[in-house]
Design a protein that fits this description.
single chain; Aspartate Aminotransferase, domain 2; 2 domains; 7-stranded mixed beta sheet; 3-stranded antiparallel beta sheet; 16 helices; 13 strands; about 45% helix; binds pyridoxal-5'-phosphate
Length: about 450
């Protein structure tokens, strides 16, 4: 049996929605994107939102909005996908890598030790779907606000270091209040909007790439949570940034022209201005049509992943070699509903050598398990540019070193069949027995 790490879950509803857009005569950014944005805004509960071409583009645009560039520092976790740090490099700022906590999220303690006068932003990563502790990160940023200065109007309005969320993994996670209706009840109720907003970062950026919790093939969204950022002004600037710096996009001009004609006014549909040398990061109506269907299917997609998680959790509870990775210990499990994105397991015994053996043996049986992630400081670009010595790595990244050498991710997508799941669990247990025996004979 061949089991890929991921398979996209798109069906006839997505195909029909896409076909309708293709037949409509308007396939780039238009009304569907606006409807998708409204639906996302409602789902996330943010103040303002803009959909765009990717999470990378969103993170990059936010750093640009805050005027972050050469001479500035941005702190982020060493355990993430390269995109999180690549945007920092691309705006010309310095990437300051921090360690993770036991929960495998950006460690607030490590961040605090790395703050300088040059720090302009902290990017938390919602690893595997588990939100970073934005409450703690905002507290640290506030504590250091006297040392902070910026000439950027959005940064000045905020009055402190920006706390940005790379929420590429966590679409569908939301703050909750667990309250006991009856004894032992695990019922969940959404928090009041204000309390929920306080648990988020100042701004969050989501990904709808093919492997994410919902997909638009490629795509992303920037969600603004903090009122102090003047969300409407920030949104207007972002809209302009992501589409050439144009004051009025083609869809608005077409719409204005129609309403002007109805009102018998002289239509000036050709007019626009360029207010910035912008980028080209807009989302298309085809992507938005896909996303709208996926959004409707989100609860069912999530239920399927929950069933897979329950099945994996059962075999892990009996395992001598593996356990659930540390993110399942996240403190904020109590205050968030977590939409799982990856299922990460951690070796109890052994390190990278044994972990690599597990990955190889699973692969030999047709199961494409994966690794999320090799620490950024081990990857060529970051290794050569920041050049940490072995001693510095041990001192600065003790948790990242410990965890990254022991983790692997099992296939965890809604297209997995019962048969495939039972194949994975039986092979996983077989590989576990083999590796355990090999470890024991060595000692
Ligand atoms: C943690 C993280 N951040 C950012 C990204 C980039 O997302 P996108 O492909 O939408 O730019 C990814 C993509 O996998 C990711 O895993």
């Amino acid at each position: 049996m061949q089991i890929p790490f991921h398979k996209s879950d798109v069906g006839s509803a997505e195909i029909n929605a896409l076909t309708a857009v293709l037949r409509s005569g308007w396939i780039s950014s238009g009304s569907k994107v606006l409807v998708f944005e409204e639906a996302l805004k409602k789902q996330i509960g943010c103040r303002e939102l803009i959909a765009l071409s990717s999470c990378w583009a969103g993170l990059f645009s936010v750093l640009k909005l805050f005027g972050i560039g050469p001479g500035d520092e941005v702190i982020t976790t060493a355990l993430t996908f390269a995109a999180t740090a690549n945007v920092i490099e691309q705006v010309g700022a310095t990437t300051v890598l921090a360690d993770i906590s036991d929960a495998m999220l950006l460690s607030a303690e490590s961040v605090e030790g790395l703050l300088t006068k040059k720090t302009k932003a902290i990017i938390g990563v919602d690893y595997a779907g588990f939100p970073a502790d934005y409450h703690a990160l905002k507290k640290i940023a506030t504590k250091h606000k006297k040392k902070f200065s910026s000439s950027n109007p959005f940064h000045q309005a905020l009055g402190r270091i920006l706390v940005l969320a790379d929420s590429a993994h966590s679409f569908g996670s939301f703050p909750i209040r667990k309250f006991p209706i009856r004894k032992n009840s695990s019922a969940q109720k959404p928090l009041s909007r204000l309390s929920a907003l306080s648990l988020h970062a100042d701004i969050g950026v989501y990904s709808f790439h093919a492997v994410k919790n919902i997909t638009t093939a490629e795509g992303g969204a920037i969600a603004i949570f903090n009122k102090r950022l003047r969300p409407k002004a920030a949104l207007a600037q972002l809209r302009c940034f992501i589409l050439h710096g144009i004051s009025r996009d083609a869809y608005s001009r077409e719409k204005d022209q129609k309403s002007n004609l109805r009102a018998s006014k002289y239509p000036r549909h050709w007019e626009y201005d360029i207010t910035a040398a912008g980028y080209k990061f807009n989302m298309t109506d085809m992507q938005a049509a896909l996303g709208l269907v996926q959004l409707q299917r989100l609860p069912r997609l999530e239920k399927k992943r929950q069933a897979i998680e329950a099945c994996y959790a059962k075999i892990l509870s009996k395992s001598k070699l593996f356990r659930m990775a540390g993110n399942h210990l996240a403190k904020n499990m109590q205050s968030w509903h977590i939409a799982r994105h990856l299922f990460v397991v951690e070796l109890r015994l052994g390190r990278a050598k044994e972990r690599d053996l597990v990955l190889q043996r699973l692969y030999a049986h047709g199961i494409a398990a994966n690794l999320h992630y090799r620490p950024l400081y081990t990857l060529k670009y970051y290794k050569e540019k920041y050049n940490f010595t072995a001693t510095q790595i041990t001192k600065r990244f003790p948790k990242t070193e410990e965890k990254a050498s022991r983790i692997l991710s099992l296939p965890f997508h809604s297209k997995l069949t019962k048969l495939e799941l039972s194949y994975i669990t039986s092979i996983f247990q077989r590989v576990e027995d083999e590796i355990l025996k090999e470890i024991q004979t060595k000692h």
